[in-house]
Queue: 4 jobs
Job 1
Amino acid sequence: MEYEAIIGLEVHAQLLTRSKMFCGCSADYAAAPPNTHVCPVCLGMPGVLPVINKRAVEYTIMTGLALHCKIAEFSRFARKNYPYPDLMKGYQISQYEEPLCYDGWLNIEVDGVAKRIGIIRVHLEEDTAKLTHVGEYSLIDVNRSGVPLMEIVSRPDMRTPEEARQYLIKLQQILRYLGVCTGNMEEGAMRCEANISLRPAGSQEWGTKVEIKNLNSFRSVKLALEYEIARQTELLERGERVRQVTVGWDEQRNVTFVQRSKEEAHDYRYFPEPDLPPLYISREWLEEIRSRLVELPDAKQERFVREYGLDPKDAAVLVAEREIADYYEACVKAYGDPVKVCHWISGELFRLLKATELPMSQVKIAPAHLAELLKMVDANTINLNTAKMVFDEMFHTGRRPQDIVQEKGLAQISDADELLRVVQQVIEQNPEPVQQYLKGKEQVLSFLLGQVMRATRGKANPQLAGELLRRSLRGE
């Protein structure tokens, strides 16, 4: 029997606010010594009162708008009760029945096929403290406790692990474009939990759901879902039932392991947070937030294809990161040929970024300098191979191409008399290839041209050198 996977994702994203969700402590916890960004509020001391972080609310609404959600006019925080040691108060302030954003969607593409994934809700809560397990003991760092955390819950619309991976990639792109979250999964700034069940293909009944907790990379999400599909398929084919459990993902062994069963799951006993007032989102406030939205990846890709005449795949590569897209447009403004700029960025620049493992933010080549380099090629001041050499040095030093060319004497040789002398010398030094060419072996011309380029240390104008070579071989 064939089975169909039903997959939904819950994504937690830490918001890039300066302070925590309900107090004034710094939210920049990662590099701070343990338990230094704390106060009575995030330590859960008796008698303290939380205060709502307005910027976190705005970031959540902004995300909801980007995900085509409806924005609630009235929203309320709730207490989510569970007795874990990383929860200082014994409860988490979250949202339950009245989230800020609901009923949205996100488009993905897999193997050239577009698909819309529904968004149930986008709500706001606070992060927990961080536990570090050492032998039989656990150490607790409260710096992370209270950091604003946004939860994005999809509908169970995904059917394959690759669809889930593409959904996460697109969601990360949007969060980074908005500037509301770094999206760095390996650092815990964006965390994912996957829900998966299987049912016979064509059936409308729901299977038994298994939750996979704390997946911290696109690769882990895909591998964990593939493993669960295989595990659950094997159970069903043996006539056994799938138990409703929460599982973790073992990165070393590439297997899931049971953490708790449904019977052990906690009753969170949600009830309205009595220490916080309800949130009223006025139409004026909502429109002011909407006015701050940036052009998002899908819209930018469509515009790049329409305005710049790019291939959709090339445009998709350029809009993958906002910094790359902005850099590309600055280069086009400085130079004017969008297709040529695209080839240099997706080719030479990406090659060097990959080799050095540098982020786009550390690129030293100014858009005006790239434009200057390309104009030097157009003017035959340097040839294409020399331009790539100069580009490499520009990448590592940030220097102007004109300065590099002058300092190293890389200007292209376009003087016909000077090149003709080199061509005649190459012909004299290579009698056998010359005879092969004269007997009709056209491909030998590339070898002879290579010898001309070598003799001039790559500075010969290749078009002029090729023409002079052909004419000399014909005896003209």
Job 2
Amino acid sequence: MAPTVSNPSMNNKPIAHIHVDNIQANLDLACDKSPGSKTMAVIKANAYGHGLELVAPRLKGMDAFAVARVAEGLALRTLGIDIPIYILQGFLGESELVQCADSQLIPMIHSTDQWQLLSATETKLKVWLKFDSGMHRLGLTEAELDMILKSPGGLSVLGVASHFANADDPSHEENHDQLDVFRTTTDQLSCEKSMANSGAILGLSASHYDWVRPGIMLYGGSSSGYPDPRLKPGMTLTAPVLAVRSVAAGESIGYGSTWRANSAARIAVLGIGYADGYPRELPPETPVVIGGERCSIVGRVSMDMVMVELPAKLEVRTGDRVEMWGNQLSIDEVAAHIGTLGYTLMSSLTARVERRLFSPPSEAKIEAGFDNSEKH
């Protein structure tokens, strides 16, 4: 890949370039891995930070969307999404129950409180039931599930779902325990069933059932935290070079003077910081990519800026774009530097970061000193 060069459209904002084609490819992979199942594409948390309005209208091939909260389901309807939308946390209170009914959202009932509220109203609503097979976060007990299914009335139960606690590790013994519990409890039920999240889609085929629920894998992140070569990045996060500074031997940079130059060095100051969602906790030596070369962060990440030490022969100018993660640097690798997962990084990006559909730059324009991927 040719180095990014200064161009007339430079700006001082971080930009998250959204690769919808890659997200679609990851969705296609989920479908290919579970050919006997329908697909519920999980698009909660602003499409895991990628921008709901950029991603949702452009995806194809899924049978439904899933979000965490009623407000997210309403946002999808506002975008003109007319396929089924599942609310993984169900409704909280009567007003959300009514919103689900009015907007044809399908809540997953996980508590007897929700069931009693629905039973006490005349609202007609299609629902799924969430069963606790062993994660012990949200979900009905076997007795509660049985009670609801046998209750009189016009409740329309479409399916029963559960969630793995350890699908990121397919060999974990508790996965098989949860599968056994789910199978024993639901085998005699005639409704549809769903168990598999991203890790289970890729590593636990016995859990696929009628519906699978790809989430993190859609956006190129691995549930295990280790980069998965089968997945393509959904986002390339870039930041501008604000300045290139020369630092003499013995001089320090940044808050707390935590980094000091052993010899004369060049430092690039980048326009991104923890107010943009780039974590302050990222340690020195965390990589970024400039002009196709890996460089290391030095000093502390501050609110609006990050400093990077440049190799001696690397030509860098004000306005050049730096990859913080994406095509050349896996988000899972960056996350590993602070012991977290790609989920955290992508979903923590703030509104200061512009989300922009990726447009491949023309090689001719790059050679002429202009990169159209930075234009509006």
Job 3
Amino acid sequence: MAEAYAEREIFSPVSLCDSTGNLNREAVGWSRHPLHHCALKGHPLRKKRWNYWCVTSPHELFSVTLSNVDYLGLPFVYYINFDTLEMVEKTWMTPLGRGCVLGDEVYDDASYRDEKASLSIQCKSGNISMRLTLAEFGNHPLEASLTFQQPAGHESLSVVIPWSDKNFQFTSKHNTLPASGVIRWGERKIRFSPDQSFACLDFGRGIWPYKSFWNWSSFSTRLPDGRTLGLNLGAGWTDGTGMNENGFCLAGRLRKISQDVRFLYDATNFMAPWQIKTELDDSVALTFTPFFERIAKSDALIIRSEVHQMFGRFSGTLRADDGERVAVNDVIGWAEDHHARW
């Protein structure tokens, strides 16, 4: 019979790797605030680094990712209008990650620059600023100036997944960060206001096996009583490791879920409703009903990836560790199916 994991909570700064570049076993655990220093070394062509940002409002989504998979840099940007289902996406590759600057800690600055794109992400005094310019995005130039607030004491979920001493991943998931700013895209102005818009960060650093699969779901919302609620659930890639990335942030406090979650869906029809539930009890009991499918495929010799990222509405309940049942009613977010050889 499956049991809840005995996941260790970490309270002090720790290095992800030992002196040889393998996993530091003292780093295995989870924390409410980022405490890991993720200086990767050795393991040629196997190191993976990324900062994925996604900003949502009730009507729109804008996402910016800066990633370096050791032999390639993969910046990408996409926009979705939830009302019209318009989507524009741009991905490009840079040999050996040229131009990608990614730090070893969650709040380190990040940047990218080439002749047609410029990205700067800076973390200062409880705010994160993003500045992006693209010479061409959907046939128009784009300029984005966005700010993500980090409320005092706001908790997040950081965790190390230990496949082995030579394969491991640190992930840090942040949601319900109030977002504000303007995107100027051709003649359009897209505005995000902090009362209705939230940013999500997926920060990853690790040494991955060549073949991998994962499910991931996330949302950020404000409940009718004014509290914020942010969800992060994953499966597949963490199975059998004794650790997972499951939890939700209610009014700025993380509620860790130390058991696996199952994503039940039809892989021949991703638009059909999904069921997402915890294995042992009703801590998570959600129905996810997609309204839009984003398919992203890469095939560049040794790197192959296929993502079905579904955007839709979550309904159901979450149960907090104090027994409170939190109702989730038609909250916009995403769930995905991702297969990769990288």
Job 4
Amino acid sequence: MSTRHNTDKLINIEEIKEAAAARAKKFKEDIQASRKSSETDDPFDVFVYDPLAIRLTTLFIRMKWSPNAVTLLSLVFGVAGAALLYPQKVGLNLLGVALIIFAAVLDCSDGQVARLCHSGTPFGRVLDGAVDMANYLAIYLALGFRLMGESFDVTPTVTLHVSWYIWIVIVLALICHSSQARKADYYRGLHLYFLKGTNDNYFARSKDLRQELASLPEGTSPFRKLYLKIYLLYTAVQEKGAKQTQHLLDKIDENGGVIPEELAERYIRESRKVIQITNTLGFNLRTYILFLLLLFGKEIFWFLFVCVVLEGLKYAMMARYEAMTGRILTEFFPEDAKRSGWRKGGAGR
């Protein structure tokens, strides 16, 4: 009797182990399926945010939430977290940091829902970017009001008194931040385009959006027209300073939108050397530098970090990508390069 009971218990334990292994395997498969690409993911996203987000993603899918609903939920937590950075109270500040991080997890989750449910749209991509900037705008405003009237010891003999001019610094930092996010998003989207061989809502071209806007039938909703105009403006600004890239995309369009396999492999091989720069311009580095500076009461220097360090990285990223694309153009389309004056390794004219 006792032996049979022990045997049944052993069988149950094995079944539990097998079920746990199956769940672990399914969990890993879900994470892999939910990613855009391991090449464009920040290591912190891969090992921290993605595993946390996939659990929420499973819940949202069961609840039949759309990716846009998850995006808007991240806005709520992001703005609430930013507001808690305003008081000079460590406890509230730490709670604000936690809410901002949770908003970032939700930001990962909305993309996972879109990819797993095949429900991603260009509008969702624009909304995601708009919410990211809204969350950061809230952070900038909270910091601005927090810093008003404060004093900081820059050196043992120099003290900085913060006054109204902080808003000039904030506006400048916001402009730099917005530009950095757009450019990083553009080159990351291009990497995915060449990697996957399809646009798949990762990026758009302004000339295509102009054609779509011009061909809208009568009776098209004003909301759709407004959305396309905003998306067109966003895309046109992204393309500035990327002339070599535009030349390369034009050549692909001339080929019916089909990317030659050898060209795609060459682009991806070269892009892998640069792609991680785009991640330094994303959420993790800039936000954790801010949290660190808040901890030491030196948050005013975050604006200097955004306007100098990250802006310098943005131009370095653009220069390397454009030089890389110039080399590819010269190699694959030598006659066109000679006729059009594309410069090998240059930024185009």
